[in-house]
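[Automated response] Your request has been received and processed.

Submitted sequence:
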Amino acid sequence: MELGLNGKVVLVTAASQGIGKAVAEAFAAEGSKVAITARGMDELQKTAREIRERSGAEVIGVAADASKAADNIRMVDEVVKRFGTVHVLVNNAGGVGAFAAFHDLTDEDWLDIFNLNVMSAVRASRAVLPYMQRQKWGRIINISSESATQPDGFMPHYNASKAAMNNLTKSLQGVCNGCDSGKRHFTGVHYDAAAFEHVAEDGERAGHPLGRGHRPFSSEQSAAYRGETPRRAQRSCIRGGLSRVGEGIVHYRNEFASRRRFGRERLRKEKYQL
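Generated structure:
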């Protein structure tokens, strides 16, 4: 893809592996200057080196714990010190937390997951916004989940945190464009979310409803597209939007629902025929 991202400074949290790594690779392939964060420095430096060698782009690793307020401020300061600013922030940090049903979850479980999945994005966004508003250009992309809009009965704390992430995305688009001050003006800063329905490693594919998982390829393309140049972004009108990437779980659920409806209709017909 040619998205006009050459030379843009991109910060991707929790990017030593998985979706975050794939997103960082996509921006590096576009010629962006990429900063990746994670808690483990060894894995982080290994990933940064791999992306540099593969893309030829400038890639640095900044050790930081997204669940800690001070680390969010420090990581942004380090990126700005190295590259001068931040054009694109990808809030990828997050987790499931306690793998439990509602009645097994404690107050600490709820507070911990909201701190990691929501407050990490709040703090990182707060830290980069002054630079984006000053340069009148910026993209903040939140990595959400299909559980935000299609929650099941398990892990309600995780589902609720991702729903909060989506709502935060919509709310902050107004902040970026001045609605919080009572004035409507375009600042050039866009806030979007991408909900990745299922990204599985090879070992997980057997347990996937369709017998396969989604590679991070579609994830990286979606995130890079949301970091596109001003002209393309204004034309595509991606502002405060939520995009669903991958059809796995939703396709499975829709197919299951269709089969149930078909089964009920067939039973009704058979009943009337008797």
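Summary generated for your ticket: The mean pLDDT is 77. The chain has eight helices and seven strands.
If you did not submit this request, please reply to this message.
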